[in-house]
Design brief:
Blueprint lengths: L9 H15 L3 H13 L8 H10 L3 H14 L27 E5 L4 H7 L2 H7 L3 E6 L4 H5 L4 E6 L15 E4 L3 H4 L29 E6 L17 H4 L4 E5 L16 E2 L5 H9 L3 E5 L2 H8 L4 E5 L20 E5 L7 H16 L1
Parallel strand pairs: 1-2, 1-4, 2-3, 5-6, 5-8, 6-7, 8-9, 9-10
Helix pairs in contact: 1-2, 2-3, 3-4, 5-11
Length: 354
């Protein structure tokens, strides 16, 4: 260990800084190599831990990421958990208590897409002898109650009543902490889809009928890199034998006025959105809740990803262990959607030919 203690070696510190710069440049393998060298020199377990964790997850080295998460968990004081005066997405909930065989309250404190993605763990918890209650955004309540393994679901902000003694919930965990709590590896991710909307009717395209393709091109405003203008999807508009249906919500729907060939199929409830997705032959969506919902419904989907995509999509490749029916079409250069959209066009053409 460098200089007899964590974080005291200047060489380790320099390697960590270099690794973070490499990660920011999307040189993920290089970043990981620098981080591991720093660790071998005795780097502080918490130094640049977010960057190290992201590199590990992007490369599918989940066991390394969980060791880092263990260090973060061990550094927390009892008063650090589930602080009600802090924003939901900043709260840590799980204190390391094993989940197996216990009554578990899963709190969904992040975005809608995150909640959809991590509901997949309810059946895995049930298989370990857990009874599972879920606290989730009101928009997702109906879908969550139909999810296998969920014994009870309540709206966000209403779960404290589940913690009184007579209800007996023994362990709390934030939904995005479940992959750490269960020591998930890429090949053990629960990905039996659909795990939402299992009873919804599914479209089987009649012979000779147009292929129905859903579109979502704008994500939330907090990361503009995830979004593209509808005009960038114009190559899809020129395909014969294709019916394009917009499932876009929000102000971006105004862009439809310039593209009358795209039918506005927007709905106002997530249950209705799930039904609409199940009536499609294919979904094309940017990295937003719609892509997660389509994946959880087992709807064939092309997910358009910007060049510095989130950790859950990995550093490269067209497939993801999280959603078997998703095809990942990635930017090669930040801001240039042309190759990703061309990939989506080729997938539509291939399905038309099939």
């Amino acid at each position: 260990m460098a200089d007899g203690g964590f974080g005291t070696g200047p060489q380790a510190e320099a390697l960590l800084r270099a690794g973070t710069r490499a990660l920011e440049a999307r040189r993920v393998a290089r970043a990981a190599a620098l981080f591991r060298r720093a660790e071998r020199l005795g780097a502080d377990p918490l130094a640049e831990v977010e960057a190290r964790w992201k590199a590990a997850m992007l490369l599918g080295r989940y066991e390394w990421a969980w060791r880092l998460s263990d260090s973060v968990l061990a550094s927390r004081a009892p008063e650090d958990f589930n602080r009600p005066w802090t924003p939901y997405h900043t709260r840590c909930v799980w204190d390391g208590t094993p989940l197996a065989g216990r009554r578990v309250l899963v709190r969904c404190y992040h975005g809608l897409g995150d909640s959809v993605q991590f509901l997949r763990y309810a059946p895995a918890l049930e298989a370990q002898g857990c009874r599972v209650a879920v606290e989730i955004q009101p928009e997702l309540l109906s879908l969550a109650r139909d999810c296998p393994g969920v014994a009870e679901a309540v709206a966000l902000g209403e779960a404290d009543d589940l913690l009184v003694e007579e209800r007996g919930w023994e362990v709390q965990v934030e939904s995005m902490e479940l992959s750490h709590a269960l020591r998930t590896l890429p090949h053990t991710i629960p990905n039996d889809v659909p795990y939402l909307g299992r009873g919804l009717p599914r479209r089987v395209r009649p012979a000779g009928e147009a292929m129905r393709v859903g579109l979502v091109w704008q994500a939330g405003g907090w990361d503009a890199r995830r979004s593209l203008p509808l005009a960038a999807l114009e190559p899809l508009l020129g395909l014969s034998g294709v019916e394009l249906v917009s499932l876009q919500q929000g102000p971006a729907r105004e862009e439809l006025a310039a593209f009358p060939a795209v039918r506005d199929g927007a709905v106002d409830r997530l249950e209705a959105l799930a039904e609409a997705m199940c009536s499609l032959d294919l979904m094309v969506a940017v990295d937003t809740m719609a892509a997660h919902l389509a994946g959880a419904l087992a709807v064939p989907t092309v997910a358009l990803l910007h060049q510095d995509a989130d950790w859950r999509w990995g550093a490269a490749g067209t497939r993801t262990p999280w959603y078997p029916t998703l095809h990942l079409a990635r930017q090669r250069v930040q801001g240039d959607w042309t190759p990703a959209v061309a990939e989506a066009v080729e997938i539509v053409r291939a399905r038309l030919g099939g």
